[in-house]
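Aggregate trends can hide what the representation actually does to any particular protein. In the encoding step, the backbone of a single protein was reduced to a row of integers, each denoting a local shape. The record that follows shows the chain in one-letter code together with its fold in token form.

***
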Amino acid sequence: MKIGELARCAGLNASAIRYYEKLGLLAAPDRTGGQRRYPHGAVHRLLFIRFAGDMGFSLSEIRLFLNGLQEHAPVGPRWRKLACRKIQEIEKNIERSRRLKSLLQHLLQCRCASLAMCVDRLSLSPRLRLIRGGAK
């Protein structure tokens, strides 16, 4: 399969395919008459790369998942390992997003007379409260 056909099947630009090759996410194809010729299985690999990227996986995480994966090897154990790590990351992001939402809601109502008052009200610096002489 030529690179243009592979690109159409995977919904990618040919430049993205060459980039994934350069990163080692996609094996360098055979060449015929100077043109890249990909096996039909390459489309599955590219569809996975695209899907994983859309879901927030980094290219290094995708490479880790695909590294050494054989064409007909079960992927279940790899999925579980990657999923466990990604769930932990997502939980941290959810907590961060909740804190950010709370902060933004506070800022919408902010009537603080100064930055120092705002920082104090948001409890951004427990050390500062200790310096001033105790916690509130």
